[in-house]
Design goal:
single chain; alpha+beta; Ribosomal Protein S5, domain 2; five-stranded mixed beta sheet
């Protein structure tokens, strides 16, 4: 019996890291050993994850296994989208062009800025009092 080859990629968004394993199949998406509908509760997060598959007409063609950690659910959805886009880009150069033109291959490097000493937050200062 032949061993099924998984395609693998890592995606990142804010502080979330997603490892995606993809193989030809029926379109089942499993996130942290749970179905996507159980793990991702918001429809916007589900739409975000499905976006690269819809753009490349690959919905229902691959089984996707995801391990994701860190961040919140929205950041995790962005990390999963990034990883799926990278895997699809590896499979076919034409898909990569479509994904790149829609900005899905590029990692969104925006993170929360750290709090600085002497300030209330990252940039917010304490209220100035003249008297």
């Amino acid at each position: 019996m032949a061993k099924v080859k998984y395609l693998h990629a890592v995606g990142k968004r804010k502080t979330a890291i997603a490892r995606v394993y993809m193989k030809p199949g029926t379109g089942l998406i499993t996130i942290n050993k749970r179905p996507m509908d159980v793990y991702m509760l918001r429809d916007t997060s589900k739409m975000m994850i499905m976006q690269p598959l819809e753009l490349t007409d690959c919905v229902g063609k691959y089984d996707i296994l995801v391990n994701v950690l860190g961040g919140g659910l929205n950041g995790q959805a962005g990390a999963i989208r990034h990883a799926i886009s990278r895997v699809l880009g590896e499979t076919d150069p034409d898909m990569r062009k479509v994904l790149k033109s829609n900005g899905l291959i590029t990692r969104d490097a925006r993170k929360k800025e750290r709090k600085m000493y002497g300030l209330a937050g990252a940039r917010r200062r304490f209220q100035y009092s003249k008297r």
